[in-house]
Design goal:
Elements (H helix, E strand, L loop, with lengths): L5 H18 L6 H15 L4 H6 L10 H13 L3 H8 L3 H5 L8 H9 L5 H10 L9 H18 L3 E2 H17 L3 E5 H4 L4 E2 L2 E6 L3 H8 L5 E6 L3 E6 L2 E7 L33 E2 L13 H10 L4 E3 L2 E2 L11 H16 L4 E2 L1 E5 L10 H4 L4 E5 L8 H13 L5 E2 L17 H11 L2 E5 L9 H7 L5 E4 L11 H10 L13 H8 L7
Parallel strand pairs: 4-7, 8-9, 9-11, 10-12, 12-13, 13-14, 14-15, 15-16
Antiparallel strand pairs: 1-3, 2-4, 5-6, 6-7
Bound molecules: zinc ion (2 copies).
Organism: Deinococcus proteolyticus (strain ATCC 35074 / DSM 20540 / JCM 6276 / NBRC 101906 / NCIMB 13154 / VKM Ac-1939 / CCM 2703 / MRP)
GO molecular function: phosphoric ester hydrolase activity; zinc ion binding
InterPro entries: DNA_pol_lamdba_lyase_dom_sf (IPR027421), HHH_MUS81 (IPR010996), PHP_dom (IPR004013), PHP_phosphatase (IPR050243), Pol/His_phosphatase_N (IPR003141), Pol/histidinol_Pase-like (IPR016195), PolX_PHP (IPR047967)
Length: 511
């Protein structure tokens, strides 16, 4: 089987539906609808990919024989033929427009019809006023789309910290085997949240010898070589090796925001091993891929003490959010696992509704061991309304952690309009911890905000893992915490399970 995941299947089905809609060749849109329905159904189905392959997708609602055969071929070949076919009819530049936030198939078609056939063309059309004149867009829509297009253009040739780290580790590992020492440097040494590539300082040997070593490394594509340096790409990420001695500076404190501050000694900063509880994670109860039991085992394998769950609430229907009766069943399963002696706490990631109220009634929230409150909708509110919404949620006595507070997705979209200082002030006043979401797409809060508020607000570093593998993202959150000068005293995950429980529910924890 080619290296295809369930998410890949869902993505391929949706992308095919989008392109069919853009093409308009699908009379009545029946095929597109069929692919979309199959995608939604497959996304929610609980069987593993292996099981699905063995049973040829039998029993998955909305996946008929025809689509099942296409998916099986995809699993074998790594190509989804209907997508390739549809893509042939749509220029690459037009397909690229789907990367712009706010554009669905209908609008992409309208842009294409108006001769706006790429992201740069969209940006230019927004600036020149041409876009505002296209039917269905208007001045306000054109301005928003122009900004979104610019965001996509700025994100080109940028990489996530995780991508650069994995590339650097592959290269450093190969060089270490040949006896060359390496150290992260440049923007990677600074743990920047996005970067142009991975910089490494190499001690020992010559660029020619490094090049010889790396020639045997899978995924390595050689680039330029000078007397002092070697460049190339690993897995598409640019890697630059430069000759030098290990840096004496602690690079994470090497930003303008650090100037003049008194910061902890590097050795005193938070470490991955200090994290006892993995809080805010997802399981098959909502949109995760692993059972609660598997997630607990995953946490323990990584050397942490306990798992805090955080499945979605009812308003997050797209993510299989739990209705109140389902939440009670979920809590009952967690209580049963606790009775077995498993180190697990019952939490939920509860949606913050547009008015700042929460997605469950207070009596239901009180049945949980802790509550993460997050925004997953209503991104378009004004800064004043969004701030009031988050302040209200952060001030709720049963909310313990404010999840991914700014809503940004690196290289994909900016966060919503917000006065983050007002929100963190509310966290400080109510004792709510602010999340540093460790997912490399988020890294939200921004470390700059954490740095400004350290000592006044408690923080929680959460992977938001939707799979056992996702738990490994913790290190990126810890890097952000280090950049912000946090020690274990600042971070509620460093409490042991009993202490965390008592912190989250000070009144009821005695009973
Ligand atoms: Zn979330
Ligand atoms: Zn989450």
């Amino acid at each position: 089987m080619a290296d295809v995941t369930r998410k890949d299947l869902v993505r391929a089905l949706n992308a095919t539906a989008d392109l069919l809609d853009v093409l308009g060749s699908d009379e009545g849109g029946f095929r597109a609808t069929a692919y979309r329905n199959a995608a939604r159904s497959l996304d929610r189905h609980e069987a593993s990919l292996e099981e699905l392959q063995q049973t040829r997708f039998a029993g998955v609602p909305k996946v008929g024989k025809g689509i099942a055969a296409e998916l099986l071929a995809y699993l074998d070949s790594g190509r989804f033929a209907p997508l390739d076919e549809a893509a042939e009819g749509v220029p690459e530049g037009v397909q690229g427009l789907f990367a712009v936030r706010g554009l669905g198939p209908k609008k992409v078609r309208a842009l294409w019809d108006a001769g706006i056939d790429s992201v740069p063309a969209l940006r230019d059309a927004a600036q020149s006023g041409i876009l505002a004149a296209v039917k269905g867009f208007g001045a306000k829509g054109a301005q928003t789309l122009g900004q979104a297009a610019q965001f996509v253009l700025d994100a080109q040739d940028r990489f996530l910290l995780s991508q650069a780290t994995l590339a650097a580790e592959a290269v450093a590992g190969a060089l270490a085997q040949a006896g060359f020492g390496t150290e992260f440097s440049g923007d990677l040494g600074r743990s920047r949240d996005t970067l142009g590539g991975a910089d490494l300082t190499v001690s020992g040997g010559e660029p020619a010898a490094w090049a010889q070593t790396l020639a045997a490394l899978e995924g390595w594509a050689a680039g330029e070589q000078t007397a002092e340096s070697l460049s190339g790409r690993w897995g598409g990420v640019p890697v630059r090796l430069e000759r030098g001695e290990p840096a004496a500076l602690f690079l994470p404190f090497d930003e303008p925001e650090h100037a003049g501050l008194t910061l902890p000694e590097p050795a005193a900063l938070l470490q991955v091993a200090d994290i006892q509880g993995m809080l805010h994670t997802h399981s098959v109860w909502s949109d995760g891929t692993a059972t609660l039991r598997e997630m607990v085992a995953g946490v323990q394998t990584l050397g942490h003490a306990y798992l805090g769950t955080g499945d979605h609430s009812q308003s997050a229907a797209y993510a299989g959010g739990l209705t109140p009766p389902r939440l009670r069943e979920y809590i009952a399963e967690i209580r049963a696992l606790q009775a077995e002696g498993l180190p697990i706490l019952a939490g939920a990631e509860v949606d913050i509704l547009p008015d700042g109220s929460l997605d469950y009634a207070d009596d239901l929230l009180a049945e949980l061991d802790y509550v993460v409150a997050s925004v997953h909708s209503g991104f378009g509110l004004s800064a004043a309304d969004q701030t009031a919404r988050l302040v209200r949620a952060a001030s709720h006595p049963l909310v313990n952690i404010l999840g991914h507070p700014t809503g940004r997705l690196l290289l994909r979209r900016e966060g919503y309009a917000l006065d983050i200082d007002a929100v963190l002030d509310a966290c400080a006043a109510s004792g709510t911890a602010a999340e540093i979401n460790a997912n490399p797409w988020r890294l939200d809060l921004r470390w700059q905000d954490v740095l400004r508020w350290r000592g006044r607000v408690k923080f929680s570093i959460n992977t938001d893992a939707h799979s056992v593998a996702g738990l490994r993202d913790l290190r990126y959150g810890v890097l952000m915490a280090q950049k912000a000068g946090l020690t274990s005293a600042d971070v509620v995950n460093c409490l042991d399970m009993a202490a965390f429980r008592a912190w989250a529910r000070p009144v009821s924890s005695g009973g």
